[in-house]
Amino acid sequence: MSPRKSEPRPAEGRDELVRLVQLLIAEGQRIAHLFAQRQGIHGTDVEALLRILVADEGRPMTAGRLAAELGLSTGAVTTLIDRLERDGHVRRERDTADRRRVIVRYDRSGLELAGRFFQPLGLHHRTATADFTAAELEVVKRYLAASIDAFSSYREQLTAEPDVGSSDRPEQISGP
Length: 176
Description:
Layout: H1 14-39, H2 43-54, H3 63-70, H4 74-86, E1 90-94, E2 102-106, H5 108-128, H6 134-160
Antiparallel strand pairs: 1-2
Helix pairs in contact: 1-2, 3-4
């Protein structure tokens, strides 16, 4: 009999999955840094572009939300958005429901630029996964969706906790 869904299953292979996800994230960050270098922009700008790209249409990216997600002041994010807008990566739009809010969206030229850079990665990825069956891809999608939920849940937990700074760090033990 297989374990019920609410019960943890044996950990066989899970440690290797965690390691592979860590390697995937690290490789993605390396590629993002190369994109930043080649575009002459800061890593924080790339992080902002990614947040804008994946923003849910039901909850579009505003300057205030971007500031909160990046952990920056609203003034710093305004400067960041000014820079990205000047370079053609993003555009500002007034929210039709609340004219006081400004929504930040990718500009067509920014999408084209990112597309040219990342299109070869998409080709590499499609080649790497070409032999996967539809059933295997469904399992991978289910795993990635569960992983995203776990990451989001942990981020929300961390966000809800008070920032205790260095008080959570283990005490330093000095030698004789």
